Recover the amino acids of this structure.
């Protein structure tokens, strides 16, 4: 039986300027990424008939820089279908929704984008000239996630995921040097990505001696907030011939399931939560196996998230992620499983899950320049999120 | 934990009031399904196990086991001077029920996975927060 994935192609990608405290209108960043993706595909505004974004309208904390409404107000594509929400299978759930809509015939070329302004928004909020951004927070904490954590000083996902990492260390003998191998690999790759935030060399001593944030996480286990936007165009395979790309990429499989408690503490305790489901459903929708993956772009909001994904996706057994990445050889650009070839979010910047999708396309199209992995990869694995929950994608050359 | 005058507290709702105020009586209590006896947390309106709406509130002993923890070294807010230990504890009567909490009453370095702990309450605003300290036994 034909899968919905078979009916769609990726025909263009775009990315805006990426940086810290750019002090630019985030909607402009979103438009830059969208226009860049359209130019890449050779499509005009009139060709785009679908819009999809994560995680919804602009927020004052910077998490969302632009939603569908803000982009449509400028691009005026009159979308036949659109979608913009937060409760999706990972950040790239917006991409899966677009692929479903295209496959179902609701639209032919869907523009999918993600914009963040997490460094400019707080800077504006601190600026007395403007009456924008965060008002003084009240003491009463609402919300299913926050109200059970923040009163105990557990403010950050780094605290919540740090607990899982501590348990992983306890159960399997994982060490900080293992997580460090992921951070160092990201930095080595970021050095070759002109768009990355942190490009200076990072040594294991630097990693181990950095100040602790929340054990076992030190500073370099944490990704870095930034401003920027990414856009991807999903076209019907019959419409892909109208684009500039002679070799549009296939979506081999999408992993979208939730199999765990939708919770940070009532379910899995030794992994980032809610990534086993997407991994399981990804492999159920393809005949390919983990050994067929040529390049992996796996979510690394913290180093341990990436280690969790490596295990959940079956690149190694549960608990063996530490030895798998030890020394960094296997995950290097010329290794068995090249990992986060753009620098991930750790060194590249927290583009909220979408930089992994963008980079997978770059690598499959052979456009990585200095950071291109050798032997032209045919299959790329992408993951985003976890906890919110997560999502996984398998992309392939035609 | 110090500086309780500055610290955030959970918004009290009709659904969670029984939990956050039980500490005034020194009790830790959870919702429990009368039909299938499953302890339920966070408190739901319907039992996810059997879909019964016949749900009671029951006291537990306050004993728990540390399942995961992190020593937080970063100062997120002035009201929480680091270091302090954030943990997930498993409730003795129902280890599938967990609380994200703080471990107090010992040095951060003394906390370990598997350690048995006992609840103690600290009032912040209208809420009595269940914290946990090492058990004497």
């Amino acid at each position: 039986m034909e899968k919905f994935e078979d009916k769609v192609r990726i025909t263009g990608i775009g990315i805006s300027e990426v940086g810290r405290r750019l002090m630019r209108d985030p909607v402009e960043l979103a438009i830059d990424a969208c226009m860049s993706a359209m130019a890449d595909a050779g499509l005009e505004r009139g060709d785009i008939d679908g819009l999809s974004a994560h995680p919804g309208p602009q927020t004052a904390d910077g998490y969302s820089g632009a939603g569908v409404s803000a982009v449509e107000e400028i691009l005026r594509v009159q979308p036949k279908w659109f979608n913009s929400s937060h409760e999706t299978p990972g950040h790239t759930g917006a991409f899966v929704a677009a692929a479903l809509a295209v496959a179902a015939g609701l639209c032919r070329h869907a523009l999918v984008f993600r914009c963040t302004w997490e460094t400019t928004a707080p800077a504006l909020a601190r600026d007395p000239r403007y009456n924008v951004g965060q008002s003084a927070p009240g003491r009463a904490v609402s919300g299913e996630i926050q109200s059970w954590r923040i009163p105990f000083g557990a403010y950050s996902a780094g605290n919540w995921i740090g607990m899982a990492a501590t348990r992983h260390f306890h159960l399997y003998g994982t060490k900080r040097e293992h997580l460090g191998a992921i951070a160092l690999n990201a930095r080595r790759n970021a050095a070759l990505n002109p768009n990355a935030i942190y490009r200076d060399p990072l040594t294991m001593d630097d990693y181990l001696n950095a100040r602790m944030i929340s054990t076992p996480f030190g500073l370099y286990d944490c990704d870095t907030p930034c401003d920027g936007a990414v856009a991807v165009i999903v076209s019907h395979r019959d419409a892909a011939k109208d684009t500039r790309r002679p070799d549009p990429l296939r979506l081999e499989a999408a992993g979208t399931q939730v199999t765990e408690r939708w919770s940070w503490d009532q379910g899995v305790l030794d992994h980032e939560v809610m990534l086993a489901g997407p991994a399981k459903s990804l492999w159920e929708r393809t005949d390919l196996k983990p050994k067929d993956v040529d390049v992996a772009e796996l979510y690394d909001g913290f180093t341990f998230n990436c280690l969790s994904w490596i295990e959940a996706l079956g690149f190694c057994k549960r608990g063996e992620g530490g030895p798998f990445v030890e020394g960094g050889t296997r995950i290097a650009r010329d290794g068995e499983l090249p990992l986060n070839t753009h620098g991930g979010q750790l060194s590249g910047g927290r583009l909220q899950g979408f930089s992994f999708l963008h980079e997978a396309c770059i690598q499959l199209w052979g456009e990585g320049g200095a950071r291109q992995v050798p032997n032209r990869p045919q299959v790329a694995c992408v993951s985003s999120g976890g906890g919110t929950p997560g999502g996984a994608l398998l992309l392939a050359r035609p | 934990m110090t500086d309780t005058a500055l610290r955030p507290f959970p918004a009290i709702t009709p659904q969670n009031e029984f939990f956050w105020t039980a500490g005034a009586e020194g009790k830790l209590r959870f919702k429990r399904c009368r039909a299938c006896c499953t302890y339920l947390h966070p408190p739901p309106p319907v039992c996810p196990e059997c879909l019964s709406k016949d749900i009671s509130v029951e006291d537990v002993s306050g004993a728990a086991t540390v399942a995961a923890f992190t020593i937080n070294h970063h100062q997120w807010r002035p009201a929480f001077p680091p270091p302090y230990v954030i943990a997930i504890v498993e409730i003795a009567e129902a280890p599938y029920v967990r609380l994200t909490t703080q471990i107090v009453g010992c040095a951060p370095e003394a906390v370990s996975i598997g350690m048995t702990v006992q609840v103690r309450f600290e009032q912040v605003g209208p809420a009595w927060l269940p914290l946990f300290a090492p058990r004497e036994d």
